[in-house]
Amino acid sequence: MNARLPRVIQGELHTLTIDSRVLRDNPLGDPWRRELPVYLPPGNSASGLPVILVLAGFSSVGASLLKGTPWEPSLLVRYERLLAEGRAARAALVFPDAFTRWGGSQYLNSAATGRYTDHLLQELLPEVEARFGVGGSRARRGVVGKSSGGFGALHLGFESPATFAALASHSGDCAFDLCYRPDFVKLSAAIERHGGLEGFVAAFEKAPRKTPALLGAMNILAMSAAYSPAAGAPLGFELPFEPRTGRLRDEIWQRWLGFDPVERARREGRRLADFALVYLDAGLRDEFHLQYGARQLAEALREQGVAVRHEEFDDGHMGVGYRYDVSLPLVTAALSA
């Protein structure tokens, strides 16, 4: 990071408290009262500005994106630099908290975790728009995110195309056969090591440090809670594989594929056909093979008549916050046209 780059933002950062009706009785007992950072850029008035949801990845919350390091600027410092250079337009940025006991919700409604899509669309977005006078119409709303946040951006686009006009997915989860299935054995091994699924959960929650091995196993557990909830099942969801053998349980796996953005694009891609922007990217060395998923997704969307902007870059999955330097100018331009 350039030592001369400001670390203190010039705009306004508000922290709202959202008392969520739809999360109040969530099955995991997770907090239903959530803090919501809302950023308004410098200028005379925020009224009428576009509004953009910025979705964090697995094991993170929106507020995490506000933190930089002495070497790496925060997202807001990056954005204000883009504004100062005339490369991005003014917009309100909103940073939701969709964290769960398992590390994340994928921004879905799931009987095993809670109604996080409803929380964003029915509670959070209307509250921000009413309080600050931003957004107010589809043409003035966008959603961006990275990793699970990129998946969330795609999910919200497919689920509610009348709400948003622009989306950007950085290394978003897609092509589940490539990005998830190789990690099934991580959870299988953890289940065996700890004497069962509940034993792994107990070990995870007691661990003073969430190691990459623990997080890799928990990621698959969290995805199971998001994609294959099941009433009466242990912990409220079913795994898409047999833990002892690693053998795929096809009937459960098919439920997962119903959420795969590549499969959704083949079925429902035309929902995004009139978006002002659909942006996808992934690193050429992505550890979860998401560059291949992004290629598949771009192809599937184009076959459905969607104008996709698809880019690749020479990096992996982690530490790529600088890619917001690409997406924020594109999203803000699309919403300010």
Topology:
Elements: E1 12-19, E2 33-40, E3 51-55, H1 75-84, E4 92-94, E5 109-110, E6 114-115, H2 116-132, E7 141-146, H3 148-159, E8 166-170, H4 176-179, H5 184-193, H6 197-206, H7 212-227, H8 250-257, H9 261-268, E9 277-283, H10 290-303, E10 308-313, H11 324-336
Parallel strand pairs: 3-4, 3-7, 7-8, 8-9, 9-10
Antiparallel strand pairs: 1-2, 2-4, 5-6
Describe the structure.
The mean pLDDT is about 95. The chain has 2 domains: about 240 residues, Alpha/Beta hydrolase fold, catalytic domain (Rossmann fold); about 80 residues, no CATH class. A hairpin with a 3-residue loop joins strand 5 and strand 6. With about 325 residues, the chain is of the alpha/beta class. Strands 1-2-4-3-7-8-9-10 form an 8-stranded mixed sheet, with helices on both faces. A two-stranded antiparallel sheet has the order 5-6. Helix 1 crosses helix 11, helix 5 packs across helix 7 and helix 9 runs parallel beside helix 10.
Give a brief description.
The protein contains 11 helices and 10 strands.
SS-based class: alpha/beta
| Whole-angstrom Rg | 19 Å
Number of domains: 2
- CATH architecture label name of the largest domain: 3-Layer(aba) Sandwich
| Overall spatial form | globular
Biggest sheet: strand arrangement: 1-2-4-3-7-8-9-10
CATH top level assignment of the largest domain: Alpha Beta
Assess the beta-strand content as a share of residues. Answer: 15-25%
Report, as a whole number of angstroms, the end-to-end distance. Answer: 32 Å
**Overall mean confidence score, pLDDT:** 96
Q: How many strand elements?
A: 10
What is the overall number of helices? 11
> Which fold name fills CATH's third level, the topology of the largest domain?
Rossmann fold
The biggest beta sheet reads: 8 strands, mixed
Along the chain, the helix and strand elements come as EEEHEEEHEHEHHHHHHEHEH
Estimated helix fraction: 25-40%
Q: Identify the CATH homologous superfamily of the largest domain.
A: Alpha/Beta hydrolase fold, catalytic domain
